[in-house]
């Protein structure tokens, strides 16, 4: 694992390169311009006239450029520093105007500049806007003590500089002015320049230690520009240089450079800061230095003040009263400031100790594990919660490599995510979330979810154990894709496996085969021995099937007693040999499934009919599964207990379906169909809440049969839509008649999703049908059957929304059987959930089905829906369903399907006996409609 460990350590310690190409170009360009100006100043510009022009109007142009640059930046921005750049623009404009006036006298008029003059006014107006601008840029204190310390720091710096300057030059200048009987204006002007420079220098130094963190590069460049300007002013006012100064002097290069830097500061420096990525490794080193200098500022100021006084004493001069007064105030300010800082430090120390104890309690008491990884990937801190979460002491983890506790299979993904996270801008993505496996103290792997933050170049991880959540998610995923009874893959997962087998590198392998298996005789076992025995038989059959297929193949239960397997191809090109091989495999499966099953104290036998279909180039999963299904039905029709290979001739079944559809139309035209209604009973009160309309075919002998095959044809063929139309119209008409007769009860009509999407039956026709017969729209409920996964849910959702808009209620029929049921519940506007009879039949005997049914009913209750259980045949089912929260039910426990006469008698009576009270006879006794078998078992259709 050394390579991944080194990779993670190198990743955490990596630093992005700083700087931007565009900023570098501007810096080089400005350097070239300044170098040219400095070279011209050093060489005297070639002539005195050109030197005066460049020394006056050149400086004026540079200051004007700085004024325009700062003004445009202030107009373009919207931050709180906008006034500062406007003030810098005004300050530079004053300098430009002063130099222009100076040039007017020297260049245009050819006269010496008078003292004082308009140029002095402009030059004196340069400092105040710059000073106020620096105050705007400074980081504002948040307490009164902070404001007082800022004032004291400014005076300490200004007073010290005043003491030193007065001792060196200002006192001499003041005495010289007084001795030569100079006017007051000239005396004030002679002292104004150095005093304003002292104030400006004080603000520059104060800002250096109190500058804001926002746009620091631009602020630093502006401070440097003003500092360079002040330095040039100080040299200009010094007696040694003032006597030899003339326009075009080398000193002008300093003012020129200051103007260029100020013009560059808001644009080029800001762009460079945006393009650069400051390395975090430099921050710990730079901050202590800056903090130390800020702390030493009062002492440095006092030292400067002392130097000023010592200079006067060493020179043998009488110490000036200005120096004494200024020195005393500096010392007093230092004492006051130190007292304030002492009190403030004591308060901060106490507050820091309280916060440290608070956060230590939070970290140590948190159930999450907090870890800090250094830039090298080594864990520097691990919170005590690691003992409870990971089963490892925090001290054992400190010093270990972070990568050493991550699962090797997850390490690559973790490194990739960390690399992406560190490359992203911190402002856009301050944190990220990583889920991986950590090694516990017992050697097991725990699923851990970590929130990752940047921390001094490394990482800080807030981790929690999510092993139970991951296990629960895996269980839910397994439950969604596996049959609850046999634990084999269900239809959804099997279809997914078929799609995978037909795609990718296996797309051209025609040796892949799908087997559909149906247990012959299972229904008889189920009826004779009960559902519990039937479930046990299915479990044993599933176990045999699973043990008989290869490791790479898939065995699944599609529903009821139907199973399926997929046998992956082996790449052989001999199709005949491959067919023989798969046929032998299928025959062995048939023999295996046909062996006796031990159920309770006896043995039962069932046979297996197997249909085999081979993959063809370009075939879809649904077509391949359909072919296998057709082959299976051919095996059952051929005598059962056999294997049948799919052949194109089996498409003749389509012709037979067409013939059945034609017979269906004839039966509808000749009135061979009748409509029965089965009551839907409230499980709590026994009242009839609705009736479910059911079509029956009347044979020549007068016996009613459930035409299962005809109904299936009606759903699959566009030419047989008459049955659905007849069913809906007849149900609405009879419901309207019952309402007028004083028996208002809702009627439920079962329609397939494909029928609802039929263009021949728009929702407007339903509204017209209700209006024609005078039935309120709320008295009609459409039961949607979602057995076909190919139905477009978007169109179905729009159609159901339109029906609900006119008042028709929507029920989801057969919920719990189709794999698309959850998707239908999520997307379709459903009022009622109708549980599939397959769940109801075993709800008493099977604990697994009991839990599943209870969960589905809880979902219906949470969504505010009513629930109807189909196939409620025995009192025990009524009691169980009512205890689970089911609201309604239909089945032989109350009544079978009734003709119109018997239905009205039941509605007149009003309610059915509900188990749990004194058991009474059914509403109709002795006169029920003759049925072949119980209500939930479809009666075979007579031969055609």
UniProtKB/TrEMBL annotation:
Transmembrane segments: 23-45, 57-74, 86-105, 117-138, 145-168, 188-209, 221-241, 289-310, 322-343
Key words, A-Z: Membrane, Transmembrane, Transmembrane helix
Domain EAL: from-to ranges: 657-911
Domain GGDEF: 510-648
Keyword Membrane: yes
Sequence ranges assigned to domain PAS in this UniProt record: 355-425
PROSITE patterns: EAL, GGDEF, PAS
Superkingdom field: Bacteria
PANTHER family in the record: BIOFILM ARCHITECTURE MAINTENANCE PROTEIN MBAA, DIGUANYLATE CYCLASE DGCP
Entry-linked NCBIfam families: GGDEF (TIGR00254), sensory_box (TIGR00229)
Protein name: PAS domain S-box-containing protein/diguanylate cyclase (GGDEF) domain-containing protein
